[in-house]
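Table 4 source record.
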Amino acid sequence: MADPTDTRVAVYIDFDNIVISRYNQLNGLNRFQTDRIRSFDSTASTANVETKSRLERATVDVGAVLDFASSFGTIVLSRAYADWSAAANSQYQKQLIGRAVDLTQLFPTAMYTKNGADIRLAVDVVEDMFRLPDITHVVIVAGDSDYIALAQSCKRLGRYVVGIGVAGSTSRYLAAACNEFSDYDDLPGVDTVAAVSPPAEAPAVKAPTRTRAKPEPESDAATAAAAAAAGAAGAAPVAEPTAKDTQALNDAATNLLVRALRLGHAKNDDDEWLYGAFVKNQMKRIDPSFNEKSLGFKSFSDFIKSRKKVVELVEDGQERRLKLRPEFATKS
């Protein structure tokens, strides 16, 4: 019988989502569809060498995903959802089976069903939550906003929800719905791979066409965050983040730190000094996507030391305590 104090983890992987997102992240927007990777057979003698090279560069490290999931506790259930007859997915079967991952087959129809994995995965998760009440953590490997309601439901059922997605292809609302969220590129063991610009195509004369207005970005901060996060991972599909983008991301992190400290001070009347671990946990509760490594810092301590204008820091061996400087404690 399992120890009731053990944390038990269930992992659900929308495999199509993660494979397509990774390929497009490294090779360019919609490149997966353009290169027809779903049916591309890299073992064929006639396989395009350049396409084969792009596919190899975008290989997903399933082991790194599962290793990260195991850091939360014992993995008692793991499933990956995809059409395993597709060449893009079949190459991973041996690796997944070797890690005891159940391969859930999504049968293709006349037209590929976009939400097939979303619906099947969500139904299985909810069913498992009631069938296996000892599961404490749910890891959802996907970036689709369709999973927001699922993450919220798991939290209402008392589970700790961890999200993993590819930078640039993840809904920021999904990240906010999780207890904790990590970019695939930030997982321990994932090698940094630089994106390549797609080859320029020869100019061609085109007939006049109607152009659709591009949707307005959600916010400058959100755009900057996505660009900077992709740049930090060395995998931006387009241009590197500008100095303005990086500054916006750093300003957002500083504001997050101030908010977390104010909340901590409000709850802790007896001692104005707060432990660093408490502050970081509070920051991740406010914004589960926060990660100091995406800002270029090796540790949270390095991040705090870079904010000395905002916080006071006291170090005693491995123990670190901090508090807001008076001029920031009362600002709105």
